[in-house]
């Protein structure tokens, strides 16, 4: 196998950390090459720091320090940039159980695969103690360095019978950054915030940490001094001093008590490189197996016979014959008859039919298809898509359990452009589709975007069946269609699944032929865009417009926010609070606008007609959400965490409406200073009187869909 070494130009001083692995790899007959620019074809590339760029092969992180205490490594703060960069890794070789567990805790299923626990650098440790050597290993940060204390003690050390040997941190000098040679010879180690002090303790060497007031000037001090930071627990086995006098006293204690080298806390010294290479070999085997893994295509269709034929044919152009689950949603255009014939001649096709007469929608049929599939992995695929020949190959290479991987759509200009897709008009309909041109541009784009990833999700997407079923699949609240994808994507994020887009896994997508544009493409508007292109906006079907309005109401009931995502379509999820509105001078129209945004609404008119009308359209029991007598006011206040009272006649502006709906989560979050609120916090916000009794949030309750087609 070919293993790349992905040390960037400014990381070359870190090469010694990988030397033991390289020696073991070459000893087993594997080829090791330089992959500085991460663009060579390798089976696996080893890196020593979290990546910020793409790589042409899978990467494994081999950290260059153990149990780090610097703020840039393994912060317990989940929002730290470190964890965002970790998402670019496929594999991680943690040097300690603690780092592996912290990674799993923060990243959940999206964490890189951890095939072993090993710290190969430590294999070069060989104790050569003389009884008279102090090793000083400072960090390179001036605010953290203890040079001003330690270097002034050279004569004091000499009088105590010790010589001082110094190894400066390599980031400053760009020199060999391995402290192991000095650790080999040191009878005592002095450090400030260098992770070498942690290594010394784990090797059983008496270690002194120097802490000073000036440390607080370090720009990352709050992170470096974080009490939960990995490494703090290790320091208790050393000595912490604050000035020259305390440092000398600590040396005297070590000498007078004859405190020597103890039993190393880290075990299996000399075997870590072999453990690492065993993991590397197993990873390469996993990656090779991916290329022959079968993936089930889940493809519902409704009166789209010609499109589903094209999709089927494109899938059969892929080198491996993957299973296809075809699901007919009460079609009347011959779709079912065609599916029956195909299943007779293609034994890798399964079929299912909703007999109708009403459709159940792809929200339901996707889940039926997943349950019918026999493979570990499936891909959601639209009937109006055309797969490129490398769609599966270039998607599955980024997949592991706990991840969901999307392909990249090439689309005609029927929707606004976005960074997650490529707009290229290769045909707005099946009759216009230019297959040769699609294949040609795919060849170009596969080279241009080779192995690149971004973070976001949309169809087509691929994941492990086990992960899908673990959260209950799609929510039937959004059947027959609309927002079912945004809902499950939110839930993927809350479940800590990684959402990856493979930028070289292409499909052509003619878009929305099952409902939104089911009546054909009728261009309603031509809208010039800033980049000089034109958005040809089609006319939406009446069926779609009615459905969309109702499904957004259901969305607001479930999430208490709008559908939110960043520019790459990575979901943004706001905190969901338990909220009750108490509205004076309310009307039926105002109730209709506000009810979806609250858990309960108390009004001063009889809402019976509204409840009957809305119950006919909603999966929620609207009657449980609304009250209308003054007598229950206190009960409402006692039963909910946040109570908002106002006069409906004063609600006159869009800004006020937004404050009580889409901006409400932000307003509540803004007044949470983390302090104990006791009996509650009351305040005025515009026309609204707000009482906050608890800042508890409930968005995590939405992760698992364990509710079928019943009133909620």
Write the layout of secondary structure elements.
Layout: E1 2-5, H1 19-27, E2 31-34, E3 44-47, E4 59-61, H2 81-86, E5 91-92, H3 97-107, E6 133-137, H4 147-150, H5 154-159, E7 163-166, H6 170-173, H7 180-185, E8 188-191, H8 196-202, E9 207-210, H9 221-224, H10 232-235, E10 239-241, H11 244-256, H12 272-290, E11 295-301, H13 305-315, E12 324-329, H14 335-345, E13 349-354, H15 362-372, E14 377-380, E15 385-387, H16 391-396, E16 403-411, E17 421-423, H17 435-448, E18 453-454, E19 461-464, H18 465-470, H19 484-494, E20 498-509, E21 523-528, E22 534-538, H20 542-559, E23 579-584, H21 588-594, E24 600-602, H22 608-615, E25 626-627, H23 633-639, E26 642-647, H24 654-660, H25 664-670, E27 681-685, E28 688-692
Parallel strand pairs: 1-2, 1-3, 3-4, 4-5, 6-7, 6-8, 8-9, 9-10, 11-12, 11-14, 12-13, 16-17, 16-20, 23-24, 23-26, 24-25
Antiparallel strand pairs: 14-19, 15-20, 16-19, 18-20, 21-22, 26-28, 27-28
Helix pairs in contact: 1-12
Walkthrough of the structure:
It is a single chain. The chain is of the alpha/beta class and 712 residues long. The protein has four domains: 2-121; 126-256, 3-Layer(aba) Sandwich (Rossmann fold); 294-543, Spore Coat Polysaccharide Biosynthesis Protein SpsA, Chain A, CATH 3.90.550; 579-696, no CATH class. Strand 23, helix 21 and strand 24 form a beta-alpha-beta unit. Helix 1 crosses helix 12 (272-290).
Could you tell me the strand content as a percent range? 15-25%
| Stretches with pLDDT under 50, minimum 5 residues | 170-174
Principal-axes shape call: globular
Give the number of helices.
Answer: 25
End-to-end separation: 55 Å
What helical percentage do the residues reach?
Answer: 25-40%
Q: What would you report as the Rg, rounded to the nearest angstrom?
A: 31 Å
- Could you name the CATH topology of the largest domain? Spore Coat Polysaccharide Biosynthesis Protein SpsA, Chain A
Name of the top-level CATH class of the largest domain: Alpha Beta
Overall tally of domains: 4
Task: State the CATH superfamily name of the largest domain.
Answer: Spore Coat Polysaccharide Biosynthesis Protein SpsA, Chain A
Please tell me the overall pLDDT.
Answer: 90
Strand-pairing-aware structural class: alpha/beta
Number of strands: 28
CATH architecture of the largest domain: Alpha-Beta Complex
Query: Could you give a short account of the major beta sheet?
Result: 10 strands, mixed
